[in-house]
Design brief:
single chain, alpha+beta
């Protein structure tokens, strides 16, 4: 398996991969593939942190990390949002998701980012160091139950004194 930065030529294949992957997801609103395009067209897109996994020339996974912000009064802290991550059904439970998550973390850290946020299943994401944002004194404004809104520090104690609110 190789993990590489997505290219413009990959966009339509990524759209299809995300759409099909989320058809078998435990939680989906059916619009994740459109969300990828929205993120890509936003000012928060970071091309270096949008990755695809390939095996034998076939795209089997995709992940995006985009800029998001924690706001505390008039102080804004730039961080990252992991959304979405997609793996082709036939390749699930084979380490593809873990590999692209770890690679995206390494690349984010190299680019100087210190934390990543997401909305997801705690049973899956805790293994990567994610904890509820409320543990860091950070609330969300999206009426999502606290246990599903999580953050991971790429650098120890990066969120220790941030506090505030995050919205997605």
């Amino acid at each position: 398996m190789i993990i590489k930065k997505e290219t413009v030529e990959d966009f339509s294949q990524i759209y299809d991969l995300v759409k099909v992957a989320f058809q078998t997801a435990k939680v989906s609103n059916g619009k994740e593939q459109d969300f990828v395009n929205q993120l890509r067209n936003s000012g928060n897109y970071i091309p270096e942190l949008a990755l695809v996994a390939e095996e034998d020339g076939q795209m089997i996974g995709h992940i995006m990390l985009t800029k998001t912000y924690v706001v505390n009064g008039n102080i804004t802290h730039e961080t990252l949002l992991l959304a979405p991550i997609s793996v082709v059904l036939a390749y699930r439970n084979r380490g593809v998701g873990s590999a692209i998550i770890k690679e995206s973390f390494a690349r984010a850290k190299t680019l100087g980012y210190s934390s990543i946020f997401l909305v997801g299943n705690p049973a899956y994401y805790h293994r990567f160091g994610f904890r509820a944002t409320v543990d860091f004194g950070i609330k969300n404004t999206n009426d999502i139950p606290d246990e599903y809104v999580m953050a991971c520090e790429l650098i120890p104690n990066a969120l220790q004194s941030i506090g505030g609110t995050i919205s997605f």
